[in-house]
Amino acid sequence: MNEFETLLNSVEDVKVRDVVKGEILSIENNQAQVAIVGTGVEGVLTLREITNDRDADINTFVKPGDVLDLLVIKQIVGKEAEGANVYLLSLKRLEARKAWTTLEGKEGEIVTVKVTKDVKGGLSVDYNGVRGFIPASMIDTYFVKDTKKFVGEEIEAKIIEVNAADSRFILSRRAVVEADALEAKKEAFAQLQEGDIVEGTVSRVTNFGAFVDLGGIDGLVHVSELSHNHIKRPSDAVKPGDQVQVKILKLDEEAGRLSLSLKATQKGPWEEVEEKAPVGSTVEGTVKRLTDFGAFVELYPGVEGLVHVSQISWERVENPKDVLKVGQVVAVKVLDIKPEEERISLSMKALEEAPERPARRNNENNSENGEKRERKPRAPRKAAPKKDYELPETQEGFSLADFLGEDFDINDL
């Protein structure tokens, strides 16, 4: 066999999708000239077929004299080949093919991937040259609005589906987060007890309360447990990132729930009320609520007392709304305090001078013309004659008059 026939057979041996050995001959303009070993033909290895990083330097990956396993992906014809048999070779696609092979049957395993870009509906990731996809619903345990923050990061994800034929590679970061959180919860629950006061970080604020991270486990501080004062929104009391001390109200390890209280670690307004507003003192307050039976007046933030309707004025008040308005500032006197019951009795009329009572008219001694009126003597009562009779055993259906007969006189009563 002459040299031409040998070369022809060698060329025929090189086919697209073949894996060949290539020796780097030279590097120029971010691409390498490659001799396909044992064939007598050459190939081209571009930076794009080495890495996805467009700004990388090809010299950091290959150098003249290197012998690499490469994948034949295309035969270059026409002017580009300048009449020679030249093939386009790829390093990254061969690695991807190997990766697909290693991925088969690996569903359920945890792998480390690099996030290459945020795309519609999730994240595009790379695993040893294989492009994978993490759907938005599988990024975290809650919906993530800003997915760009993950780009360029290496993250752990669980393999959900591998289909090399369709180039389908689906992963879930959420599954890893949930598994880690479950393990952290077990450790946290083992160390925490109801009644403990612990330090944590506010992680999220919702309409119904705030979640506090206690280091591996999140607990809920309901809006009613955020402050002793009345607040309209949880965000009025805390913000994400705040360091807070909370008291553990309830642990439910089976359900994975933790109920916390922020106000239980703070001094309550009722603890000093007897010093700020002792019995008998006069204080100013704001009318907060009006009911049929009285008015609730706020003396201090979180401290309200009741002015009963009978204590509003010396004049008769039918309805507190007739004389008071919500938001009105009034002066009140403290009548009674029961801090343990969070109750204060107040009075407005106690601060006013009691009106004089009008003189009582003497109808017996004074007539219309000023003369004394003589009292008519009462007629003596008639004594009822004794009758000999016996009452029946039952009086049902009978009246007293039925027994007394004619001797009964209604005027004698």
In short:
By secondary structure, this protein is mostly beta strands.
Describe this structure in words.
By secondary structure, the protein is mainly beta. Helix content is 12%, strand content 35%. The strands form four sheets. It has a five-stranded mixed barrel with strand order 1-2-3-5-4. Strand 16 and strand 17 (294-300) form a beta hairpin. The radius of gyration is 48 Å and the shape is rod-shaped. Mean pLDDT is 83; it is low at 1-10 and 387-413.
Describe the protein's topology.
Layout: H1 3-13, E1 19-28, E2 31-36, E3 41-46, E4 67-76, E5 86-90, H2 92-103, E6 110-119, E7 122-127, E8 130-135, E9 154-163, E10 168-172, H3 173-191, E11 197-205, E12 209-213, E13 218-222, E14 243-252, E15 257-261, H4 273-276, E16 282-291, E17 294-300, E18 303-308, E19 329-338, E20 343-347, H5 400-404
Parallel strand pairs: 3-5, 13-15, 18-20
Antiparallel strand pairs: 1-2, 1-4, 2-3, 4-5, 6-7, 6-9, 7-8, 9-10, 11-12, 11-14, 12-13, 14-15, 16-17, 16-19, 17-18, 19-20
Q: Kindly report the average pLDDT value.
A: 83
Total E-strand runs? 20
Secondary-structure element pattern, one letter each: HEEEEEHEEEEEHEEEEEHEEEEEH
**Proportion in helices:** 10-25%
Count of discrete alpha- or pi-helical segments spanning 4 or more residues: 5
Largest sheet: 5 strands, mixed, barrel
- Fraction in beta strands: 35-45%
